[in-house]
Structure formats: structure tokens, C-alpha cells
Amino acid sequence: MMPVYDPEHFDFTGYRMPAEWEPQDAVWLAWPDNPETWPVHLEQTRGVYARMIAALCRFQKVYLLVKNCGADEGAESHLAPLSFPRDNLRICHIPYNDSWMRDAGPIFITKPGSDEPLVANDFVFNAWGAKYEPYHDDDAIPRHAAQLLQVPCVAHSLVLEGGSIDLNGRGCVLTTRQCLLNPNRNPQLTQEQIEANLKRFLGVSHVLWLDEGIEGDDTDGHIDDISRFVSPSRILTVVEPNRGDANHAPLAGNLAKLRTLRDQDGNPFEIVEIPMPDIHVEGPFGRSPASYANFLIANGCVLVPVYSAPNEASVLSIFRDLFPGREIIPIECTPLVAGLGSIHCVTQQQPRT
């Protein structure tokens, strides 16, 4: 058994959470099987997963959580028609409640050259303020993953989801007040205490705050739906040109705030604007949080969610300009986002050490 540390007895000196564009060993996903999340689109969502897995396996390993052998067969039925390096896919029998690996999965930190170069942070997952139950199997995923990888785990009392943070790899973490300061997460902590925890546990020096997220986002304003680092000095942020849309004002406010932020060296960021889909994507729960910011950067590619909107050719052109060394792979995510999350929400990268 690998050790499980209390954060008060673990030396975080020299550890950091790498930026998403840094080299990865693997991406983690959990096969979708919760009909309460996808009451209408479950089978279509499984097809979306299969396409994501096939694309990622061309570049790196994929760990796919499934609950039992019957689920293995269901996943295989969707994967069998697709051509990809099967040796890069590892199916893992780990209990889970739902498929939001970004939020429930381990948040890895690294310290190359040390005795423990990869460590899994096990933050508390409370289903975005106990909105959905049960969630206890989800909360235990990081410990299972750490044991499978044979790496140490640090078990925290801090509630923190991976979708609520984005890092530039140089010392900055970007987040929102709507989420991290929400009383349904860590009501006993002040903003200053939360910042101190992020700095210590993720190896950052600067916490950058935006305000609100988008309509339909049940996570209380996750950053990965609105603004993302695409390099140490560049931030991609979504905007809503339609002044009559509910997302216009909060996204305009975030854009104005981004223009005032400074990096770890005191320099302004380059801000790249990208529009929201120019259609409303509707699902069984109302308006879905369809955003092009919910992309995933992997070793040789970027998976970009698309929603059959008219403006997507121009959106994908922006991504190609931003990531000239990576293949831009659009994935139709209308069924997936009907469950209130998209590509980034269901994936978690494991950095290379």
C-alpha cells in the first residue's frame, strides 16, 4: 500500500501542478452510466466518449474507469468500430457514482527527481455543494487511482474541484469567486485562507479571481467554462456578443477583469476572445452550459467541443492559431453537454514526471 498523507505532515516544497500543455502520461475518464445525468442522451454520450478515447489513445495512455465486466462489454461495443492503439487504453474497475473526472478525480502535483515525483491530491468532492447524491464513491476516486498507480496520496479536508482552477505552470492559478467563495464549499475559510491553501497545495504564488460563470452551469461558475490559460502569458476567454443573452453581462465583466490582471512577474496577459456558440444548446435540464472553453489539451492534440453551431469554423480557426503544434480535433458534444458538462469536465490529465 502506498502512503496516504495528512497535508500537515507532507512537505509540499518544490511540488507544483503542471500546466495542461506540459507533457502528460495519461488522461483519466469514467465511462458514463448514470441515467439521472443523461436521462435522454446516455447512449449518444457513450458514443462521444468513444470518439474522445480513440482520439486520445493516438497520443498517450487513457485510464478508463468502468464499474464491472458488464460495463466493460458496453464500452467495448462503442469502441470496437474505431481504429486506435488499443495498447494505450487501460480499463480499471474502480467504484464511482458519476463521470465528472475533472472534479472528482485526483489532482496531480509533480516534483521531478525526488523520491516521490508524482503525488495525487485527494481533495474533498461534495458534488458541488451536495447538489446530487450519492457522491461518496466519487469522493474516493483519488485514493483508488493513487493505489493503482502506486503513488502517494495527500488526503485534504479542503473542498476543491479540478474544473474550478486553471494554471499557467509558472505560478498563477485562475478561478472564480462564485465557486471557491461559495458557502456550499468551504464556509469556514476566508478568501485569504483559500488562497493560502491553493498556493501551498498546488505550488502557485498568485491567485487570480474572476467573478461568475455561465448560464446552465450547475457547478457555481467553474473556470473551465469561461477562461483558460493556453500559454503562460495568454488566456482564452469566451464572450457573448448578444447583449440580450444572459451570458453577455457576466462574460463582459470577466473580460474587463482579465485585462487588469497581472502574471507572476507583474506583466499583463494577452487576452484572446472567443465567442460562445451562436445557438442555444438545450437539454433535458434547460439551457446546457455549451462553451468552447471546455477543451482539453493533450500531448499532440486539443479536443475541442462543438455543438453544430454556425460559428464553429471561425472558432476552430482560432484554436489552430493558438496551438500550431497540436492537432485540433473537434468532438460533437451536444449529447454530452446535456448532462451539464463537456470535454474538460469529464477528463483529468496525469502529468509526466
Task: Please specify the SSE layout and strand pairing.
Elements: E1 4-5, E2 24-30, H1 42-57, E3 61-66, H2 69-79, E4 89-93, H3 101-104, E5 107-110, E6 118-124, H4 127-130, H5 136-139, H6 141-149, E7 153-159, E8 166-167, E9 172-176, H7 177-180, H8 191-202, E10 206-210, E11 227-231, E12 234-239, H9 248-258, E13 270-275, E14 282-283, E15 286-287, E16 296-297, E17 301-306, H10 312-322, E18 327-332, H11 334-337, E19 348-351
Give your account of this protein's structure.
This protein is α/β, with parallel strands linked by helices and 353 residues long. The protein has one domain (4-351): 5-stranded Propeller (L-arginine/glycine Amidinotransferase, Chain A), CATH 3.75.10. It has helices at 42-57, 69-79, 101-104, 127-130, 136-139, 141-149, 177-180, 191-202, 248-258, 312-322, 334-337, and strands at 4-5, 24-30, 61-66, 89-93, 107-110, 118-124, 153-159, 166-167, 172-176, 206-210, 227-231, 234-239, 270-275, 282-283, 286-287, 296-297, 301-306, 327-332, 348-351. A four-stranded mixed beta sheet has the order 1-7-6-5, sandwiched between helices. A four-stranded mixed beta sheet has the order 4-3-2-19. Strands 8-9-10 form a three-stranded mixed beta sheet, sandwiched between helices. The longest helix is centred in the first third of the chain and has 16 residues, at 42-57. 46% of the residues are buried.
